[in-house]
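Example 3.2
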Amino acid sequence: MRNFFRLGVVVWFALMIQACVVRWHVNEITYTKISAGRNVQSSPTYDSIITPYRKDLESQMNEVIGISLVEMPKQKDQQETLLGNFVADLVYKTVTETMGLKADACLLNIGGLRSSLPKGNITRGNIFSLAPFENELVLVEINYKIVQKLLYSLTQKPQPIAGFTMLAQSDGTILNLTGSLSTTKESYMIITTDYLANGGDNMDFFKEANGRIATGIKLRDMIIDYIKQSKEINSKLDQRLQIIR
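Structure, written as tokens:
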């Protein structure tokens, strides 16, 4: 890339000198439609500079980091998905067990998971497609009042969760709730992304949080590390979130 930059500087300098010496007189301007199809020939110089980087990137993205025992399709408008359960569980487990941080629950958003995971080999590129954003994981401290708003939001728009189960009606009436969120206490710690903690995806209730702890870890990186360490991954539907319509 440094050579490419130097080449650009040389070309720019040469054009500047030419512009100072030659007087340009424009008589007519014509427009020509240029096709950007596959038949357009690329510059040999450009290719020689870019090819090594492209090959290195392709090698990294094609690296197999683990195997999935089931297909985890990207699904919308579902109360629970294999993909959502897998990601929420691994985040909750990693933060509470591996990192040793106290957390009552994990809440993510299904819209942040952008592609399916296939059955079989999982590559690094699969995870970059799944989590293309630079979202970092944070722990948000909220009170009981905000917990109620969080639970109500799930009755209106189900999202990936871990650390608790809930059976509720669409009007927000909770019929059964398990986990730490079912107990009344002074504060609760919720694992989520910085995007959601800032109120993204209509989760404005997080803006009322008492505070937050930044982990400095991107969601994508945590998924990659988890799969590399686990070697084999799996997921199942366990009715952790049921909304009666």
